[in-house]
Amino acid sequence: MAASPKTAPKIASRVALVTGAGSGIGKATALALLGAGYRVACGYNANRAGAEAIQKSQAGAFAVKIDIASRSSVRRAIAAAHKHFGAGFDIVVNNAALVQEKPFETITDADWDRMLAVNLRGAFIAAQETLPGMLARKWGRIINITSIGGQWGGMRQVHYAAAKAGLINLTHSLAKLYSGGGITANAIAPGLVATGMIAKELKSKAGKRKAAQIPAGRIAMPDEIAAGVVYLVSDAAGYVTGHTLNINGGLLMS
Fold first, then answer.
1. How many whole angstroms separate alpha carbon 168 and alpha carbon 234?
2. For residue 184, what is the DSSP state?
3. Mind listing the pLDDT tens digit for each residue in 223-242?
């Protein structure tokens, strides 16, 4: 039987891994979880300075190098965080991602493989490597940050959209497999968010047209995506699993 809120670990004892925590949605998520009382491993690959800045300014934060496309790197990060916190991960937020705008006919095999390695296989590896501890404790939260592109397809980011669509399906599968053991799996699908990742897109004619179509009249702030994560990892969301939370200002309604 799944762990109930009465038997679930206290927030102060819970440890979260946030990948891609050096900037953007990942940084906002790490800060929001720290603010809510969780301990957070701030995973970084290229943006070491961003993750270490969180560690220096926030009690309960730990910056850790992690290349999610590499299982050995994920294992090293998990071991380092376990040594630092003295505990395994209760929460995994698979946020780290790669974006590439390219016409479909020019996408190479290497482009495709790299995109899926980071944006899909990385979440698979992180979930698989952290699940044993969650199963042993009969409590866990897996949050996959996907994209509106994974729901309606892509024009200049076909490989990105395909990977994000796969991430939504991975979320469904994990929910079916492990919710009965107290481990929920959910996805968050942002629309356009004010991060460096979409800066180039917003400068294009297509990006400007897309932004103009948002019913809310603006793009999202990273904190708004982070707020969704904080809810989904909470005890209040213990009965929410296999769900894709759309935070897109009404750009896609379902």
1. 20
2. E
3. 999 999 999 999 999 999 99
Q: Which domains does the chain have, with CATH numbers?
A: 11-247 (3.40.50.720)
pLDDT tens by residue, 71-103? 999 999 999 999 999 999 999 999 999 999 999
Whose CA is closest to 152, among 108, 210, 194?
210
Give CA–CA dist 105/63, Å, rounded.
39
Handedness of CA 74, 225, 28, 5 (dihedral sign): negative
CA-atom Rg of the chain in angstroms: 17
11-15, 73-77, 233-237, 247-251: range with lowest mean pLDDT: 11-15
CA nearest to 232, candidates 70, 76, 91: 91
Per-residue confidence (pLDDT) for residue 42, from 0 to 100: 98
Catalytic entry in 38, 160, 231, 239: 160
Distance (Å) of CA 218 to CA 147, 171, 183, 190, 191:
17, 28, 34, 13, 11
Residues in the chain: 254
d(CA 231, CA 243): 13
* DSSP code of residue 214: -
Distance from C-alpha of 132 to C-alpha of 183, rounded to nearest angstrom = 11
Q: What phi and psi, each to the nearest 5 degrees, are found at residue 113? A: -65, -40
At what angle are helices 158-178 and 109-116 packed, to 10 degrees?
A: 30
160 is catalytic: yes
Integer Cα distance of 90 and 14 in angstroms: 6
State phi, psi for 213 to the nearest 5 degrees.
-90, -5
Kindly provide the b/e burial profile for residues 10-21, where b requires at least 16 CB atoms within 10 angstroms of the residue's own CB.
eeeebbbbbbbb
